[in-house]
Amino acid sequence: MKAIIKLVICLLSLTSFAQVAPLENHTWYLEKLVINNTDFSVPNGFSNSYFANFTNGADYSLNAPCYPIQGTLSYSQNQTFNINDASSPLDCDGLPQQVTEYDEKIMFSINLSNNPFSYVFSYKSNYIELTITNANGDQAIYRNQQLGISNNDKPEVDLYPNPATSSFQLDINAGSNIKTVRIFSVNGKEVMYFKQPQGSYNVSQLSPGIYFVKIEGEYVKNNIKLIKI
User: For the Secretion system C-terminal sorting domain, which residue ranges apply (predicted)?
Assistant: First the structure.
């Protein structure tokens, strides 16, 4: 099931050979799912928690509250592709029911059994929209920039600076009560673990690249993409 979520994201990178560059040059943020002609927007408070990155053609990674994912896929010049494999650690503990239910929609509507997937880009005035359609006609719609966040949709925790060179700090809303901070590589391997809050988190030992910072507390659980330079 977890593999299914990635599938959605992988779709992004499959922009045909001529379109590979746009995929690799941007982070793609999930805006909504369209299932049986019904729109399902990303849950409140998680507007920018679902995003995908593509690095080497058919390699991709997907961040999601429950399933940080990576995998491979095969695509052709007719702007369709198949999902070949995907893997992810399952970790939905402490997340709101609306988030786990949304992830289930992704898993059941965009999964390996729904090959092949087609994809198309739409160039808007200030962003690029990516639409991926599975064999059943369900869609996942992404854009190459973060979604707007309302006052009721602001994250309880954020980190800065990002990109980071040697360390980062957490911007924490009152009452978040952070307990642990863990850092994962794009393939899901834990590379650093802080057992208690720190004024500054030293990441100088990490190699340059993309990581996922998992922040957990009594009233908060966030996954945030970190770029180490």
Answer: 159-221
Nearest to 61 by CA among 182, 161, 183, 185: 185
Q: Give the span between the Cα atoms of 132 and 33, in whole angstroms.
A: 10
- Express each pLDDT in 123-160 by its tens digit: 988 889 988 898 889 998 999 887 765 544 555 677 88
Torsion of CA 30, 229, 205, 93, to 10 degrees: -10
What are the pLDDT digits (tens) for 188-229? 788 999 988 888 999 999 999 888 888 887 656 677 888 899
Q: Which helix (H) or strand (E) holds 210?
A: strand 209-217
- Which residues of 57-208 form beta strands (DSSP E)? 59-63, 69-75, 80-87, 117-123, 128-133, 139-143, 157-160, 167-172, 178-185, 190-194, 201-202
User: What angle do the packed helices 2-13 and 97-109 form, to 10 degrees?
Assistant: 70
State if pTM tops 0.85.
no
Contact 218, 20 (CB under 8 A): no
Strand 201-202's sheet: what is its strand order?
157-160, 167-172, 201-202
Do residues 119 and 133 make contact, with C-beta atoms less than 8 angstroms apart? Answer: yes
Closest by CA to 183, choosing from 145, 216, 161, is: 216
> How far is Cα of residue 204 from the mean position of the Cα atoms in its chain?
24
